[in-house]
Amino acid sequence: MSDFWSGYIIAIIAINIIGCAALLFFTRRKKSGAEENETTGHVYDGIEEYDNPLPRWWLWMFYITIIFSVIYLILYPGLGKFEGVLGWTQTKQYEEEVATADEKYLPLFEQYSAMSIEDLQNEPEALDMGQSIFANTCFGCHGADGRGGIGFPNLTDDEWIYGGTPDDIVYSITEGRQGAMPPWGETLGEEKLSAVLHYVLSENEVERTYREELVEEGRTTYQTYCKACHAEDLSGNPAMGAPNLKDDVWLHGGSISMIKNTIRNGVNANMPPHDKILGKHKIHLVAAYVYSLSHGDEEQSN
Question: What is the pLDDT of residues 224-261, one digit of tens each?
Fold first, then answer.
């Protein structure tokens, strides 16, 4: 902040405080010559408004408020570039709280980081910590229960676009994922787009009505434009983030209109990296919790 704007802010605050104090001071008593029980002339529903000063107790409450504001602005930042005599800042308080938390929890984080994600499935405290971090960081996209929504993967099933091994999950959280499908509407045109749609429906495990006369044309179009990402058999490609088109999981909606819209307009499904947000210890715990959402029963049975 420049000195000009700092001075401008200080001046505005000082004028307001002095103005409030002056207003209270000069209206604390009746005007000389004023009659007893004189009214302002305002009348509403037969009720007249007296022109009396504020009660003393109320007046002193305002004075105390002004005094408090002056003391606060001396101790803490609020006057432009002036940092306050205590030197308090949000950053400093945050760093102190983080240091206190690290002193308390870091040994536990390091203990759990030394364990494999599979072994952490038998550590309820570790999974609870992972769930707490997940709830604070990940619920906005994946939901509080990890079931996601349209455009955000369900983390509780066995379908993983980028792979569901512990290493895959850790990588996804740490580095993020850049998922994108280009729009094919102009390239294919509506006729070929519909043919591809009905071919995909014919191969999908969910039984739905499709137009058989379009399947062969859709197969040919799919092999030309789509198999490079989604594989020849529609099973997808985790290395490219291309979903399996044969199962009943549809990240961007499974209705015919939604699937058609996805092919026509393409999608962008990016997950930001969380390495700087969480750090490796917390990522390890979150990965263990996410892994437990789809493997918990299996690990417990083993």
Answer: 999 999 999 999 999 888 999 999 999 999 899 999 99
- Residue 219 shares a structural domain with residue 256: yes
> On the CB side of 234, how many CA atoms lie within 13 Å of its CA?
18
- Using CA atoms, how far apart are residues 176 and 174, in angstroms rounded to an integer? 6
Count CA atoms closer than 13 A to 213's CA, side-chain side: 1
| Rounded-to-integer distance, Cα 166 and Cα 130, Å | 14
Q: How many domains does the chain have?
A: 3
pLDDT tens for residues 43-69?
888 888 877 778 889 999 999 999 999
Q: Which residue range(s) make up the domain with 125?
A: 104-176+273-301
Task: Say what the pLDDT of residue 123 is.
Answer: 95
The CATH number for 278's domain is: 1.10.760.10
Q: Tokens at residue 301, please? A: 């049975």
Q: Which residue has the higher pLDDT, 2 or 119?
A: 119
Identify the residue whose tokens are 């609020």.
78
List pLDDT tens digits, range 120-155. 999 999 999 999 999 999 999 999 999 999 999 999
Neighbours of 260 (CB within 10 A): 16
Q: Which of 55, 88, 121 is the last residue of a domain?
A: 88
State whether 254 and 117 are in the same domain.
no
- Compute the distance between CA of residue 251 and CA of residue 274 in angstroms, rounded to an integer: 22
Q: Is 39 helix (H, G, I), strand (E, B) or coil?
A: strand
Q: Are residues 20 and 164 in the same domain?
A: no
